[in-house]
Design goal:
This is AN1-type domain-containing protein. The protein is mainly alpha-helical. The protein contains two helices and two strands. The longest helix has 23 residues. The N and C termini lie far apart (about 70 Å).
Amino acid sequence: MDPSLCSNCNLFFGNQEGLCSKCFKESRLKKDTLQTVSEILNTAPTILEEAKHVPQSSPDRCATCNKRLGNINFRCKCSQYFCTNHRLPEEHKCTYDHRTVGIRKLSEENPVIQAQKFNKL
């Protein structure tokens, strides 16, 4: 029986499966990584789409630091009240998705405009 070249790289003689030792190791490594990736994806916990909204106990206090608000209070789009220190979404870990709403608003206000193509003469 004459030895045949590797079916993958055609540089070295292959074994009974038709692969040289280098290509066999690479194919084995690729199979193992695919298996581990699929196992990780199957066992990964599912991420909740939207955080559950917990109503604020008292609207006269900051939802983050529980500081008394008085006359100056800021209501966020997540429908909670905050003091001047926690009024920004980054400061109080806001659950409202400002980015998606902004993208949707821009796409509605600015439709795609395409010019008519010229006719060939």
